[in-house]
Amino acid sequence: MVQDSAQQEPSAAPASRARDLLPSVVPALIVGVAASLLLVGVSLAAEQLQDALWQDLPDALGVGRYSVLWMFVMLVATGIAVGLVVWKMPGHAGPDPATTGLDAPVLPPAVLPGLLLATALMLAGGPSLGPENPIIAVNVSLAVLLGTRAFPRAPERGWVALAEAATIGALFGTPVAAALVISEALAGQRIKGQLWDSLFAPLAAAGAGALTASLVSQPSFDLHLPPFGRPGWADLLSALTVASVGALLGMCAVHAFPYVHGAFRRLRHPMLMLPAGGVVLGALAALGGHLTLFKGLNEIAELAADPEGWSAGEFATLTVVKLAALLVAASCGFRGGRIFPAVFVGTALGLCAHALVPGVHPAVGVSAGVLGVLLAITRQGWVSLFVAAVLVASPGILTLLCVASLPAWLLVTGRPRMQLRTDGTPIR
């Protein structure tokens, strides 16, 4: 049978010409460097404040740095300080953080100083949240504000994509994570041209952001767990089981999110909501210890440095307490993201599995646990796979994670996400 020539030609979107893409390189590089420097600057300022609050001040007062009393005092004080910022600063430090995700809104310029201050205070004070959501929001807002003034004809959405990619690249120290996030976002959209044409400028911004962060602060996610070689059937079973348990555990927090958020929301005022959240977080810190404080990146390195150093019960306690602390901090109004504390939850879960069943390799347990928890908390499949794999840095783990993601995804897809609408109802 003879087909006409139109039917024989592949249906593909026309590729952009190089001269159409080249003008975007310089703006992308500028946004990448600037977004990374802002992230690093806020992080370094928060670390300096954290050292003063958790080392210098208790030492001067003769109080134990991570005593139950000091942890409780600091978390309540952080709630009061952030509450004052949310109450008094212009724009009230942005929208309710329970309603925001990685796809940040464009905020008015007057809101940004309060949001940055609230984020730095939160990072230094100990609540279990990371910097990703508010820093992305600030970078997006600044990129749109300055970019549209410098290039009035450029679409606003382009500046949003550049800032989001640059910040994600800086957060993870590699542009791969940004490319995966943007690819996932573009999956449901009609793309003009080929996919890599749409990714060209954001990838340049992400690369500039990642390189800047690497040169300035040298971020690293490799936990230096015992090396993992060739996967076997037992490793596959371990990965499938731990990832599924992680997904179920994460969904417990997701389902509780609107109820816990609603309980704090009934207090109606940030000077009640945030200090009350600090009280609950102080009680959780007393139960779980100082490793359940902060965003969790340094703390997971401490856990992974000695996988045999805790019992299964202790790892289980760390897992549950950190998940509860994430839930409370995200519900009561602290400005921050959920990815980094979710990584801690998954790491503690994986090490708990290893402590319960020594045949579960620590690298398999940690990567599968992080994968399952992140799938439930973020609903970002590619990012979950990427973060889980980069923690172990072993090629043999990738196949296990790809297979383990399938049952875990079936457990979370179509169900509520850990993000709410403005009326408090969960987004699916």
From TrEMBL:
Keywords: Membrane, Transmembrane, Transmembrane helix
InterPro entries assigned to the protein according to its UniProt record, in alphabetical order: Cl-channel_core, ClC, ClC-type_chloride_channel
Cellular localisation: Membrane
Gene3D superfamilies: Clc chloride channel (1.10.3080.10)
Protein's membrane topology: Multi-pass membrane protein
Signal peptide residue numbers: none
Transmembrane segments: 25-46, 67-86, 106-123, 158-183, 195-216, 236-260, 272-293, 313-332, 339-361, 381-412
Protein name according to UniProt: Ion channel protein
Organism of origin: Streptomyces chlorus
